[in-house]
Amino acid sequence: MLFTAENILLTGSVLLFVSIIVGKTSYRFGVPALLLFLVVGMLFGSDGLGLQFHNAKEAQFIGMVALSIILFSGGMDTKFSEIKPILVPGIVLSTAGVLLTAVFTGLFIWWLAGMSWINIHLPLITSLLLASTMSSTDSASVFAILRSQKMNLKHNLRPMLELESGSNDPMAYMLTIILIQFIQSSGVGFPQMAGSFAIQFIVGAAAGYLLGKLAILMLNKLNIDNQALYPILLLSFVFFTFSITDLMRGNGYLAVYIAGMMVGNNKIMYRKEIYTFMDGLTWLFQIIMFLCLGLLVNPHEMLEVAIAALLIGVFMIVIGRPLSVFLCLLPFGKKITFKSKLFVSWVGLRGAVPIIFATYPVVADVPGAHVIFNIVFFITIVSLVIQGTTVSTVARLLGLSTPMEKTGNDFGIELPEDIDSDLRDMTVTQELIDRKGDNLKDMNLPQGTLVMIVKRGDEYLIPNGSLKLHVGDKLLLISEKTKE
After folding, report:
1. Are 10 and 262 in contact (CB under 8 A)?
2. Of 71, 41, 11, which Cα lies nearest the Cα of 289?
3. Partner of 325 at 20 to 30 A CA spacing, among 252, 346, 435, 477?
4. In the prediction, which pLDDT does 484 show?
5. How far is 435 from 430, CA to CA, in rounded Å?
6. Exposed (0-12), middle (13-18) or buried (19+): which is 85, by Cβ within 10 Å?
7. pLDDT of 53-104, one tens digit each?
8. At 152, phi and psi to the nearest 5?
9. Can you name the residues that pair with 468 across neighbouring β-strands?
10. Model confidence pTM above 0.85
11. Cβ-Cβ contacts under 8 Å for 76 (sequence gap 6 or more)
12. Structural contact between residues 450 and 477, judged by C-beta atoms closer than 8 angstroms
């Protein structure tokens, strides 16, 4: 079956529907949704139901668009107040950690490729390129599992892993691009490689900061009559930030992540609408990206490199990732516990990003590119099956998991940032009625706290002093914001 104008909407809608249903059921069994989205794509692909999609360049473009949105949205969710205590170790992991993982794994691949009993034969630089494409981690599916199982992590591990996973993709991208250039130019000097790396990092960081500031200014100063256009305005800034940074030879992925952090940590107009829009768009492009990557691969080709890929994957999980994590966190001594280091090592999940980066050698026609792509895809599946399904179990075994704190309220109501008040809800219990009575005016709420609305079953009641409360009633309370 070929993709044509007549069937693309039909097949696309079916794929999206199946992916959402499959993704919903995955939470119940602790399976990363990413893995199931990939499997759906593979089932519908050339070795399955016969959808033909073999264009690596188109897949790369879809991945570029998706990653821009995902990284920007991840930046918006990264709060300065949460990452401040772990900023330095998080940055070290996302830079030096990625580099060390690429070096250790690349050397192992080169050694493995020299064995007579293995069916892959890659030179040193190509081995390092293969390792670089999969040197970054993907924690999106990890935190989806933790949220679905109502788990939190001690010792600021959650913000550390979120910072690492959100900011380490640019490092892996830079390593991949530089090594491709090295292979194509038959060797580039170290000064040129270091200079290219520095330009990408500096220009990317500067562009992200400045364009993030510009986005905040435009969102707050532009008077658009239709508030639904504000999220679309921000989306245009996301793509503009990535493309203009790339034109200036900077790292576009780093730029959109930093711009997202700038927007997310400042006051902006219509924050709730923008967050809802970006969250939905992020999920849409995640699904599209995973499906396309699943369609792109030919499962029978992966079987040809299965033994080598399995050995490389096990090395990364058991040696490469832990060794790089422990070396990177060594300077921080006892500030980061041994168990925390073990857990960070285990959450070295490979995701969609390594597969997207593996399309770059294919598009650049690097010798051995298809072997690289198939090995990366196989290792991603191995990582998701072994690590992705055991994240919550490992957290509990190491004693690092705590119940997730409740956020927001059951009424789904939020206040604008400019209103200096807190919203919370409480449920009326029999004990509360026995102690204070069933009259709202007898509740003796703290000074400055008011009941806005009462929910009784599916009915919403406007409160007054004489309202009789029932067991199970939910009260939406508004109060003055507590000063820290």
Report:
1. no
2. 41
3. 252
4. 47
5. 9
6. middle
7. 777 888 888 888 988 998 898 888 888 888 888 889 999 999 999 999 999 9
8. -125, 175
9. 439
10. no
11. 260, 261, 263, 264, 275, 278
12. yes
Q: Which residues contact 154 (CB under 8 A, 6 or more apart)?
A: 340, 399, 400, 401, 402
How does pLDDT run across 267-306, given as a tens digit for each residue?
888 888 888 899 888 888 888 888 888 888 888 888 888 9
What pairing do the DSSP bridges indicate for beta strands 421-427 and 450-456?
Answer: unpaired
pLDDT exceeds cutoff 60 at 1? no
Residue appearing with tokens 């970006």: 278
3-state per-residue secondary structure call for the chain: CCCCCCCHHHHHHHHHHHHHHHHHHHHHCCCCHHHHHHHHHHHHCCCCCCCCCCCHHHHHHHHHHHHHHHHHHHHHHCCHHHHHHHHHHHHHHHHHHHHHHHHHHHHHHHHHHCCCCCCCCCCHHHHHHHHHHCCCCCCHHHHHHHHHCCEEECCCHHHHHHHHHHHCHHHHHHHHHHHHHHHHCCCCCHHHHHHHHHHHHHHHHHHHHHHHHHHHHHHHHCCCCCCCHHHHHHHHHHHHHHHHHHHCCCCHHHHHHHHHHHHHCCCCCCHHHHHHHHHHHHHHHHHHHHHHHHHHCCHHHHHHCHHHHHHHHHHHHHHHHHHHHHHHHHHHHHHCCHHHHHHHHHCCCCCHHHHHHHHHHHHCCCCCHHHHHHHHHHHHHHHHHHHHCCHHHHHHHCCCEEECCCCCCCCCCCCCCCCCEEEEEEECCHHHHHHHCCEHHHCCCCCCCEEEEEEECCEEECCCCCCECCCCCEEEEEEECCCC
Q: pLDDT of 172-197, one tens digit each?
A: 988 998 899 888 876 666 677 778 77
Please answer whether residues 141 and 74 qualify as being in contact, where contact means their C-beta atoms are separated by less than 8 angstroms: no
The strand order across the sheet containing 450-456 reads 421-427, 474-480, 450-456, 459-461
